[in-house]
Amino acid sequence: MLPFYENERKRKINLGGSTRVSSASDLLDSVKAQREARLEQKRRQDSALRIQAFYRGRSQASVTKDEMRKTFRNDVLGITGLRCLVLLGLDEAALGIWSQTVCSTAPEQVFALSKGRSWLTLVQRVALSVLTSVSRSPLSPNSLSHLQALTVLLSPGDVARAITSYLLNHDYYSLISTAFQHIPEPKSKKAPQTAPLTHLAVVPLSLYPPTSSTFVSSLSKFLVHIFTIPHLPNRIPLSTLPSFVSSIPISHLHLLSPHTSQITSFLAHQPNSVEARVHLVANCSMFFSPHYAKFGNQGVVWYLRFLAEVFGGLPVGVFDSVAQPKSKVKDKGKGKEAAMVVDADPAVPWVLPEDEARHSQPNDLLILDTKTHSRISTLQSQTHIDSLLLLARRSQAVQEAFVIFVLALGRVWPTKREGVLSTILASGGSGGSGGGLVRGLWRDVRGNSVGKDVGVSIFDPRNASAWPPLLLLAELYSQALQMMGDDEFFSSVSGPSGFSGASSTGSGLGMKNPLTMEELVLFSRMLLNVAFTLYWSMPTVTTGSSSTIAPSASGAAAAGYSWEEAREKVTRCLVGIHARDSRKPFVPPDGWLVTSSALDMRTFVQAAMLEEQQLAEAAASSSEDDAAMNTNGESRPSSLLRNLPKSRNGVSGFSARTIASFSPCLGVLNNIPFAIPFEVRVAIFRQFVRLDMQRLGIDDRYRRGGWGYGGKTRVSVRRGMVAQDGFDRLGDVDLKGPVEITFVDQFGAEEAGIDGGGVFKEFFTDLCKEVFDTDRGLWLVNGKNELYPNPHAYATEPHSLNWYRFIGRILGKAMYEGILVDVAFAGFFLAKLLGKQSFLDDLASLDPDLYKGLIFLKHYEGNPEDLSLNFTIAVDELGVTRNVELIPGGSDISVTKENRLKYITLVSHYRLSRQIRKQSEAFFEGLKEMIEVRWLRMFNQQEVQILIGGVNAPIDLDDLREHTNYGGLYDDRHPVIVAFWKVLNGFDQEQRRALLRFVTSCSRPPLLGFKELVPNFSIRDSGTDSHRLPTSSTCVNLLKLPLYSNERIMREKIVQAITSGAGFDLS
């Protein structure tokens, strides 16, 4: 590289100079920058001028205020001084001087200028400034003198009323409430400011006559602002508390009746609405409930309705959210519980009924402190309820208000509902003019039009007043049904009171049925009409919300009930009465059926089929995203079903209540199925099965003899090992599809015959003989030879539970196919399948001795502690007896008068449910794989038993003959066939059942008649040998009848065949 190239990297300098040329854009930028600089300078100057003006103004104002303060000090109580004080505003020093001067000056001098309008106007504004100062800082050095000065100004008189009126119009009670709450609660009682502040809170209530609008306005504001102060009783000094209570115009509270809705509406729009309502309830309970004697009937009516409306705006279960929920230790000395103990078994019915459990979730919005909770708890106490009942017996208006109060309390506090209802029932027998509450409610309900017939008239707002007594009567009677045994239920009413035998202080727990059987028949019909209308015609509501009963405050709307909640209560009572009638009928045969002319059964069945199909479609598409929406976002025609809430278990996991919310027909069938004839429900059940088969693509022809089609599962089963082979080879098979059974004899050879369904039935019959044999150890029988799971510990082992699950699947298969099974289950066991609880009366069929002992304890008039019972139960397993605690620490808790009902309930629950819970769950798990739960809810436990095993009804030969097919040489007029029906007419019912079993493998006729026998009963000839016995092919329900020469021979051969007990090889 040449050296001179290195100079190219050096900076070049032009020593000759250069010419500077500016473009147009440069000139514009320069002008713009100069303009912005001028604007910025002007802004600075303007800002400086404003700051100077503000400073001069403040300085001048300070000077002026100093001059005004000097003028004020020279004339503190004069017009000039008051004007200066008003202009000074919230000048704490000046206000303090004025307050101290007023307190140290004689009242005559303070009010010397009161006749002048200017003085009154100025004093009103000064009083407001003083009160505002107190509300901001109630513990300031001048606050006490401020309060004392206000006390002087608000002394009784015309001037005081004028000043108070002005203050009331300027948030007087709001400022008082704020002052109270700004004083820390621990210091409140000892603070000297609390007493005069308490006095000022009640001053307006004594200045105006009760007839004035100002008085009513003051009283309503007093409730809204003062009674919503948290822990108000704990803030007021004990010396001041009596005067505070006596100053509350309790006898005039009824004047607030026209303003109740305004009060609750105001509270609803507050930012802390729930907390304010809760503390209002607590303070009302503290200050009002002990003084019912001062209320008068009108006052009690207003108070109960007011509380009901306040409850209506609170979240359900809010009173259960208590801080520091610590479990308390039992009092071992007396054997009484210091707190309710929850059974370790989650299914224990004592804890909470199913319809209440869904409302008992913890409230996340507000946690109550123990003081507030304790005060609110007095509302549901026995003493409080008894005092209200006493008042209700003296006045119909009080009784109506009490009804609404109890309904509202039960809704907002569901965990206490049972206790309140039990207290009412126990107190109902204490006598009194007019009879007990239950009978009083019955008189009201009987006189109303609601429930007289099925119809939408029940939704008429004019019927609003009829709902509260109906709902409370339904709740009370539902509770009574849980407390009454069958012996008490079917006993007559003693005396005019509702529960002459029940008393909260009596020694026995027995009670008489408050309604006669004739009244119960009428009551159940009214409930049925109401319930059916609410399921069939209830106004459509969106999920999660519902219209309230009757917009009128006189109806159940005051208690906050929706149509859906009313339907639940009516249904619960109706189902309870029907359960008693199922055990011992007292209602006429057709008394449970809906008789409305508007209900056509054919239309009902078709609608049920459509709803079931739509429900199944919704379940099938539930896993798809937005399956229920069109591309434009609109719902499809079945949107009500498609938008139903999701369940972890699919559609099968929905409760009867949920299904009722979007499916009228299924709602009726799942909640009050007895309103529809049993035969119709069985037909619907069979149709549901057919729909399910179509959905799964199962060819229905295999059920009608078309057994050559593919898709069947083939299983070989050894004679004598039916149960074990079935368990081993059918465990993972989809039993909803066709299953072909082949029997293998003792020599290992397959038996003759093609399984067209009859072999499976025979297999199932043999299977039942083995698995339901009590010697096998899985089942036991009660005194009626009804089966229930063995409660022994080995029955809860995994292998045994697998057997229960397998048996459930096989039984479900039989129900799915319509095969009747000769097996009977205990009612309390089947009740679990339907989600129903078992009660004391069910124990009689399981353990009669234990049942008699518990009944003795229930009616024992002595001291139960003398019986030396505790909360344990003795369990005998293989000769070894061990004690099981019914509740934690039960061995240390004695049975007393107070807790014996709980002991009886827990013992019954242990024997009927807890001991066999795992076995039952496994069995029902297998059954539910085949049969949808909502299908089974169409029946009660007695009807499910009929669905499983049929009914021992007489065999109708005319029906059998009408649906019999003939083959070969035979027809209905053939001499042998004529002789055959003559022979059958001479059979008794046992022989007819034996013949039916011989041909079809089941001795009971189909539930819907022989038209439902698939395939139909058939007869064909089998030769002319008169010495040959008749044979059968149970797979096709075929009787092979030889051509006998006379009726005598035919009868002998048929009787010999049906009593021989031969196997399938007989054919």
Automatic annotation (TrEMBL):
InterPro entries: E3A/B/C-like, HECT_dom, Hect_E3_ubiquitin_ligase. Residues 731-1067 form the HECT domain. GO terms for biological process: protein polyubiquitination; ubiquitin-dependent protein catabolic process. It holds the Pfam family HECT. Residues 620-644 are annotated as: Disordered. One of its GO terms (molecular function) is ligase activity. The active site is at C1035. Keywords: Ligase, Transferase, Ubl conjugation pathway. Its EC number is 2.3.2.26. The keyword Ligase applies. It catalyses: S-ubiquitinyl-[E2 ubiquitin-conjugating enzyme]-L-cysteine + [acceptor protein]-L-lysine = [E2 ubiquitin-conjugating enzyme]-L-cysteine + N(6)-ubiquitinyl-[acceptor protein]-L-lysine. Residues 630-641 have a biased composition (Polar residues). This is HECT-type E3 ubiquitin transferase.
